[in-house]
Amino acid sequence: MAFTRTKHATRDHLPHLLSNVPEEHQEPIKQLCLKMMSHDAYAKPYQWTSRDFDMGAPLGRGKFGRVYLARERHSHFMVAMKVMFKEELRKGNVQRQVLREIEIQSRLKHPNILRLLTWFHDESRIYLALEIASEGELFKHLRNAPNHRFDEPRSAKYTYQVANALNYCHLNNVIHRDLKPENILLTSSDDLKLADFGWSAHTPNNKRKTLCGTLDYLPPEMVKGVCYDASVDQWCLGILCYEFLVGNPPFESNTSEITYEKIKHIDMHYPSHMSSGSKELISGLIRREGRISLVEVMTNPWVKDGMAMRAAQLLQQKNERGKENLARN
Ligand SMILES: Nc1ncnc2c1ncn2[C@@H]1O[C@H](COP(=O)(O)OP(=O)(O)OP(=O)(O)O)[C@@H](O)[C@H]1O
C-alpha cells in the first residue's frame, strides 16, 4: 500500500504502524490508536483540562511537584501527570525555570528524552502530562544494584543512550547542564529518559549524602564561574559513566572545598575492577579541554561491545522468565 505523507497518522497507516508490534499486542494497540484518532484533540488544537484525566496512584514527589499515574478518559492512554501548585512555585521563585522546562521539553522529541505530551493549568495548579517511565529514577536502581554499581555492559548501554540524547539536545541548541542519575528515569524496557530540563540546576538537591552534592558533576569552568559551552555535558557524561561503574562520582568528598580542589586538579582514581576501555572513554570526557564528541562516545568500541552484551543479558533474562512462567503453568 502506498502512503501519502501526512503529519498525523490515519486509519490507513495502521498496518504500517503495527508492523513492528508483536502479534499478541496488535489488537489492543490498534484499539488504542483508533480511540486516540477519534479524540477531538487528534491533529487539531484542543484545550486540555484536568477533567480529561482520571488521576491514579502517586508515582513520586519532587520539591515542587507531585507525580501521579493518570489515564486520559477517552482513549485510556496512560501518562505520568506532574501537578505543581502555582503558590508553591511563586514562593520558591521558580516560575521562570518551570516555564523554561515546559518550553524546552515540549519541543524535544527523542527516544531517550522524557516527552512532555501536553500541559495546561487552572487557577491554582500547573499540570504536565509526561510520558511514563515506570521504573522511576535511575538513582534508585544504582543504589539498589550490587555494590551500588552497574556492570560494564549496563553502564555502556546507558552511556550510549545519554550520549544520544545529549547529542540531539546540542543539535537543537540545548545544553542540559544538570546531568546526574537523579535526573534520569528508567522505563520497563531498560531504556533511559533524560528529564528535568531547565530548572533542576536551581533546585537544591537533598538526596545526596555529602554537602557538596551539587558540585559533584560540575566541570571546572562552571565551578570557576567562567564562560562555558555545550561541552560541559560531555564532562558530566564522563562523571555519570564513572558513577555507573564505581557507585559514586569521582570527586565526591566531605566538603565542597575539597571537591572543588579535586575538580580543579582533576584528582581522581580508577578502581582496579574498571576495564581499560571504560577508563579510556572516561578520561576522554573528564578533561579540561578537547573532550571527545558525543558521536565519538556513541561509536566507542567499549560502548558498542557493552551494548551488544547488555542486549544479550536482557534476552537471557527474558528467556529465563519465560521458562519460569511455563514451569508455573
Ligand atoms: N514520567 C515519569 N514516570 C514515572 N515516574 C515519574 C515520572 N516523572 C517523575 N516520576 C517520579 O516522581 C518523582 C518526582 O518527580 P519530579 O519531577 O516532581 O521531581 P524531581 O525532579 O525528582 O525533583 P525536583 O522537583 O526537586 O526537581 C521522581 O523521582 C520519579 O520517581
UniProtKB/TrEMBL annotation:
Which keywords are on file for this protein?
ATP-binding, Kinase, Nucleotide-binding, Serine/threonine-protein kinase, Transferase
Q: Which EC class heads this enzyme's classification? A: transferase
Example GO CC term: the record gives: midbody
What is the location of the Glycyl lysine isopeptide (Lys-Gly) (interchain with G-Cter in SUMO2) cross-link?
180
Record GO terms (molecular function): ATP binding; protein serine/threonine kinase activity
Q: Which family does it belong to?
A: Belongs to the protein kinase superfamily. Ser/Thr protein kinase family. Aurora subfamily.
Name of the protein in its database record: Aurora kinase
Region described as Disordered: spans on this chain? 1-21
Q: Which gene encodes it?
A: LOC111600888
